[in-house]
Amino acid sequence: MSARPAKDQTRALFDYPPYWAECYGRAPFLPMNRAEMDELGWDSCDIIVVTGDAYVDHPSFGMAIIGRLLESHGFRVGIIAQPDWQNADAFKQLGAPNLFFGVTSGNMDSMINRYTADRKIRSDDAYTPDDIGGKRPDRSTIVYSHRCREAYQDVPIVIGGIEASLRRIAHYDYWQDKVRHSILADAKADMLVYGNGERAIVDIAHRLAAGNPIDEITDLRGTAFIVDDLPSDWIIIDSSKIDKPGRIEEPVNPYVVPQDGAAEAAGSPCQDGSGQTSEQSPAISADTSPALADLPALEMAVGSTTQVLTFMSREERQAIRQQKRNMTVLRLPSYDMVKNDKVLYAHANRVLHLETNPGNARAMVQNQGGQKLWLNPPPIPLTTEEMDYVFDQPYKRVPHPLYGKARIPAYEMIRFSINIMRGCFGGCTFCSITEHEGRVIQNRSEDSIIKEIEIIRDEVPGFTGVISDLGGPTANMYRIACKSREIEANCRLPSCVYPDICSNLDTDHSSLIKLYKRARELPGVKKVLIASGLRYDLAIKSPEYVEELVTHHVGGYLKIAPEHTERGPLDKMMKPGIGAYDQFKEMFEHFTKKAGKKQFLIPYFIAAHPGTTDSDMMNLAIWLKTNGFRADQVQNFYPSPMATATTMYHTGKNPLKRIRRDGEEVPIPKSGTQRKLHKAFLRYHDPQNWPMLRDALRSMGRNDLIGNGKQHLIPTYQPKGDQVGYQNARRKNSTPLDRKSGRGAAGVGKVIKGQILSQHTGLPPRETN
Ligand code: SF4
Prior knowledge:
By secondary structure, this protein is α/β, with parallel strands linked by helices.
């Protein structure tokens, strides 16, 4: 395989001539067995999606989105969901696909799905019928890919979804406590699709259908593959040493002559600081650059020498710059280097995060033990028309009938909720949404959202008039964006809201307010709730929005995530200070009172996040007690693949800043004892934690917090029979939600003032002790 510059891929998702198999029409459900294929009159599938989740035909499930989208292009798509992976039999049940296998672990990374934050195995799985654990293997993407290969040696395999996306380069794996290869190398698949995969997967399907071999498809954004050699006509920037994190190149000389172009390339950062040339890198030169070759030239005679001067407009200069950028690849430190050197690992992570904006990201290459992994830049965000196209497919909005009456908790949770957008510009370091969905918000149109509410109202069984959520990764980023598309395309900042709200961010919430109003006025809709997490520092910029939200869309309580109270961990999370929470709380209480309602704010916190000291946790506990909060369920920081905070956890370095060997050391609560202590501080009121907290407070010199008065954190006594409050984690994980106690999923159960939850995986809360 050899790389080619990634196309801009601005061709609309719906702008392809349909594949010939369109004549079979749309399937009521994508088939999961031969009998269903027979009923549809299919002799074979064109594409088979293998997934670790149960098949739910709903736009919140990856296999349904990709399957229905490809179906809309005329392809026959089959689903193999949660197959028995012990041998290849289950992977043959639909026969060989004509074009490719699409393999995904499902909506979650399989290791996060299977294990708690303390690496204990879960007994449940919200994406499986009846919530039963153990229906998918560890590292599902790898296992499924191997079985597909065993089943049909020559069928191309394309891996995608969150697990593939976040493990696309060499990455730290928390469960093995080591750095692993790119998942593409381990899976031995042909191609990896990362981020929002729609554009790439549609193009791949059409090109394979047109007879192009998979190893010739190397110009698609959002894809990764193995290359034999690095292309000789690209600029290679060696970023394999500290610290050369992909600077933006010099402005192009407006009077550039062809010879200058060559000279510039020769002096390009193809060499590292030590002067070693990392790769032969003949850069774009006058005669190889079409942009240059096409330009009008003015010849001038100067003495006896003839020089060619080229006058260029701003647009032409930009085109040249873009041309250069499109043919530039960053060399990341190799797998072996980042495996053996934590500082280089942190550096590689920083470089990767600097290359996430599709407006200016460059290709990257990383050696993986003898193989060269090539990553094209991220996909271009979907337009509103394209988002509508994806969400307007004829989803049945229920699990496949094969599951009968089995309950699938992840489906139960979202079946009356609407996803209105994708992406997040918050950049919280413990979260991987930016790395996966990107920082540019991709919005659906109001009409498409309203239409979906009407479909739910009219067709989804069990609808009682309550839309349980109108949100997305963040509740209030709908139609919020940078004031200028041009600035946005050039921006390299990791967040639009940290350390403060960027002055270029248009924080106007009026589109969201209008949408809320229209949604709740629909006949047959009694209530529209907002259950997605709210970015409260953004919300306070629009008091009208907060009033609208508080007056009409809060179901007793509203969850928000300050995550901590102390500046140390907050800075490592890229979260605003607790002052913004206080401001929002004031607004929330003011408008709640004005509306004559009784409702509460539920703040979420993370224990043991990188950058957190014991004192930070103690101060958080004091804040909780002072404010009358008692955390019901708490979660320690969970180092998920590729998150910036995970890099801090692994390396002790801070990739938010330039990495230096003698740079900042981040305090990491890593040992089991310290993680336990941090969690205990969050549950300071639980007698089981008091002995540990007393010891900790004494060793911190804070005996003043031990006593039996209101001003104390922990009492001096220990009650008898102090087993209250906790259940065995595994038992609790498989125990149905207790509605009476108020412990349960967002939107269900009794609201208890002062009771808070500290887990926001998007799933029903559960103890992860
Ligand atoms: S300039 Fe500001 S608002 Fe615009 S993309 Fe960059 S951080 Fe976001």
